[in-house]
Amino acid sequence: MAAHTSQSVAKAAGDDVENDVAARGPSRRTDSDSVGNVRRGGLRRALATHWYAWAMVAPVVLVLGVIIGWPLVRGVYLSLTDANERNVARTIGARHIEASYEFVGLDNYTAVLGDPVFLQRLVWTVMWTVACVSITFTLGLVLANMLNRDFRGRAAYRMALILPWAVPGFVSVFAWRFLFNRDNGILNKILDGGGIAAIPWLDDPTWAKFSVVAVNVWLGVPFMMVALLGGLQSIPGELYEAAEMDGASAWQRFRHITLPGLRAVSMTVILLSTIWTFNMFPVIFLLTRGGPGDSTEILVTQAFREAFIASPRDFAGSATWGVLILALLMIFALVYRRSLRKQGEVW
Is 213 helix (H, G, I), strand (E, B) or coil? Predict the structure, then answer.
């Protein structure tokens, strides 16, 4: 009797467990299905609610994909081939010649990275970028501090200092090229009036490098000044008043209030200025065309030379230079972002 009772209890317990498992199994599937339905419903609601925003963004995404995405993919592909003007598809009169270039893998990258020219261009590009960005930032910070104070004619000074930013870049470069002219340039005329011999601004490698840096700084200072001036005006004036009442000197106020207050803006403009300067093709090409010789050639002008000046035009080599430039800038941006995160900056 006792054994029969214990067996009945065990059987009832087993049945309860099986029923509980069976009940929980479908409920789990039902929960996962409900989560999926909620997500799909949320996406549909978001599309239905913000359809106008999606419709406005879609053309921009499409245009960026066509203008940036396709050339980028095409460039990466060409860098893996031996394409040049002799083996690409072309039409001569009524005759169409099909492309005959072949896939060569990483041979182009091996050739470029093993060429001493790449290291020469890279070193000068880094020096050019560091010099331009550091001088531009320093001058922009000084001018922004000056224009952040109340004085007579401040609006006129602001307009005059922003003027180089409003003038098209190629116009400014051609104007500076006239100023740097060795025989008829205004700068040498002024020096000649003071009894100083004419300087070969664009004919000597050292002076040519100085000239391109000066022109790029002149073009970049307005942007840096405006950005930093906006950052200065966002710093509460009460901080300066409190520091002055505590006896802080002008340098101490600048070091402990101005610089920390400008940190976020400074990090952004330095990054943007670095990328722009690294790829600043117009100043180098229009002012010196990479000369004298190749003393002022940077990476981007070398890529242009491979594609449009060299004979035969090396499209694969130019694409390789372009991909390497992109890779260097991406590495710099990642390292820069990591350093900012270590300093507590969110970017």
Answer: helix
Residues 181-187: contacts with CB under 8 Å, at least 24 apart: none
CA distance 318 to 165: 30
With H, G, I as helix, E, B as strand and everything else as coil, classify residue 319.
Answer: helix
Q: What is the DSSP letter of 340?
A: H
Distance CA 291, CA 256 (A): 44
Round to whole Å and give the CA distance between 346 and 88. 47
Q: For 203, how many CA atoms within 13 A lie in the half-sphere containing its CB? A: 7
**DSSP notation for 220-275:** HHHHHHHHHHHHHHTS-HHHHHHHHHTT--HHHHIIIIIHHHTHHHHHHHHHHHHH
Q: 81: which strand partners?
A: 103
- What separation in angstroms does the CA of 262 have from each of 58, 149, 181, 265? 35, 16, 39, 5
φ and ψ of 167, to 5 deg = -80, 135
DSSP code of residue 103: B
Which amino acid does the sequence have at 338? R
Q: What sign does the dihedral 93-95-96-98 (CA atoms) show?
A: negative
Are residues 238 and 177 in contact, defined by beta-carbon separation less than 8 angstroms? no
* C-beta of residue 321 within 8 angstroms of C-beta of residue 303: yes
What are the distances in angstroms from CA 224 to CA 25, 58, 220, 255? 63, 32, 7, 19
d(CA 318, CA 112): 10
pLDDT tens sequence across 27-51: 444 444 554 455 666 677 777 777 8
Token pair recorded at residue 102: 């072949």
Angle, helix 154-166 to helix 116-147, in steps of 10 degrees: 160
pLDDT, tens only, 198-231: 899 999 999 999 999 999 999 999 999 999 999 9
Smallest CA-to-CA distance from 281 within 254, 242, 307, 249 is with 307
